[in-house]
């Protein structure tokens, strides 16, 4: 796999924020967690996007061995489940999102179209992971997210610390081996972690959605320009610890991409995915209100290295 191919997905996610950010005011308030000063509000993913649909949902915190405190959500049973199934052991399943998004990305549609809720309604005990640096994972036992040291990590640390921590937590809570679903970067860290034997005793099966090994098949002008441009400007990011897609530096970089010959940012979703039967304006508005999320600049540099 060429690492620059993975970066295409990251750059395209960033472009979504740039091009449609002016429409934020028209989106639903569901999943909008920021207060007036830009800090995270008290309500989390459960309260804003799960329990409102009639599902039980639990918020958990998981501490990694290197001190990061991760947010995790659990949907333990199907919607409106009766007491007749109380106490029934359900198979745990862990869902891991990709780069520059968080667990909210699984919950942008109706319950009949959201993977966690579909799984819960089919009898699974669903756990939603969130990686360090995303909006509800900006805590550490000794570091503040405003410190550069907080962002001194790449996907190597997600492999060595984040994924083992959430696996151990789910296993300790359920005492059962775990099904794993990874999307995009979630496939990379899953495969790398499993190959090192971190989850040998707790993994039951794995499913990979949009595995990054296949991103070399992406041949849109937008994708190729985004990847090449980021790689060409990596040195300009040194000294910027947090890669914030909605920050001034990232926005200026992304605006330049839209001026490249052959790149059409007007119809961005079609430019990225081709014609898509299943996207609608409400879903896109919710995505833009909640994503993309920050990651470490070191992580982006790692993904861009040849």
Automatic annotation (TrEMBL):
<dbReference type="InterPro" id="IPR000073">
    <property type="entry name" value="AB_hydrolase_1"/>
</dbReference>
<keyword id="KW-0442">Lipid degradation</keyword>
<dbReference type="Pfam" id="PF00561">
    <property type="entry name" value="Abhydrolase_1"/>
</dbReference>
<feature type="domain" description="Partial AB-hydrolase lipase">
    <location>
        <begin position="50"/>
        <end position="109"/>
    </location>
</feature>
<dbReference type="Pfam" id="PF04083">
    <property type="entry name" value="Abhydro_lipase"/>
</dbReference>
<dbReference type="InterPro" id="IPR006693">
    <property type="entry name" value="AB_hydrolase_lipase"/>
</dbReference>
<keyword id="KW-0732">Signal</keyword>
<keyword id="KW-0443">Lipid metabolism</keyword>
<feature type="signal peptide">
    <location>
        <begin position="1"/>
        <end position="25"/>
    </location>
</feature>
<protein>
    <recommendedName>
        <fullName>Partial AB-hydrolase lipase domain-containing protein</fullName>
    </recommendedName>
</protein>
<dbReference type="GO" id="GO:0016042">
    <property type="term" value="P:lipid catabolic process"/>
</dbReference>
<feature type="domain" description="AB hydrolase-1">
    <location>
        <begin position="118"/>
        <end position="258"/>
    </location>
</feature>
<dbReference type="InterPro" id="IPR029058">
    <property type="entry name" value="AB_hydrolase_fold"/>
</dbReference>
């Amino acid at each position: 796999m060429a690492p620059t191919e993975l970066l295409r997905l990251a750059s395209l996610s960033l472009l979504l924020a740039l091009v449609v950010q002016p429409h934020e005011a028209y989106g639903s308030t569901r999943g909008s967690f920021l207060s007036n000063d830009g800090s995270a509000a008290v309500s989390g993913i459960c309260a804003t996007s799960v329990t409102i649909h009639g599902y039980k949902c639990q918020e958990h915190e998981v501490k990694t061995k290197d001190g990061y405190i991760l947010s995790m959500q659990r949907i333990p049973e199907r919607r409106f489940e009766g007491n007749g199934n109380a106490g029934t052991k359900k198979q745990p399943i862990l869902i891991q999102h990709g780069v520059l998004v968080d667990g909210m990305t699984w919950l942008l549609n109706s319950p009949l179209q959201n993977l966690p809720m579909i799984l819960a309604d089919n009898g699974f005990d669903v756990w939603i992971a969130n990686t360090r640096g995303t909006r509800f994972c900006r805590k550490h036992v000794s570091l503040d997210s405003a410190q550069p040291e907080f962002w001194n990590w790449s996907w190597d640390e997600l492999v060595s610390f984040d994924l083992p921590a959430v696996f151990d937590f789910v296993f300790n809570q359920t005492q059962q081996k775990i099904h794993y679903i990874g999307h995009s970067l979630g496939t990379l860290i899953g495969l790398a972690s499993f190959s090192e034997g971190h989850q040998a005793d707790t993994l039951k099966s794995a499913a990979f959605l949009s595995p990054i090994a296949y991103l070399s098949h992406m041949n849109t002008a937008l994708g190729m320009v985004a990847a090449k441009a980021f790689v060409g400007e990596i040195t300009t990011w040194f000294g910027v610890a947090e890669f914030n897609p909605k920050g001034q530096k990232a926005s200026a970089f992304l605006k330049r991409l839209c001026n490249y010959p052959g790149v059409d940012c007007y119809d961005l979703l079609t430019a990225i995915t081709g014609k898509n039967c299943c996207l609608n304006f409400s879903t896109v508005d919710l995505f833009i209100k909640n994503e993309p999320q920050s990651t470490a600049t070191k992580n982006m540099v790692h993904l861009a290295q040849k």
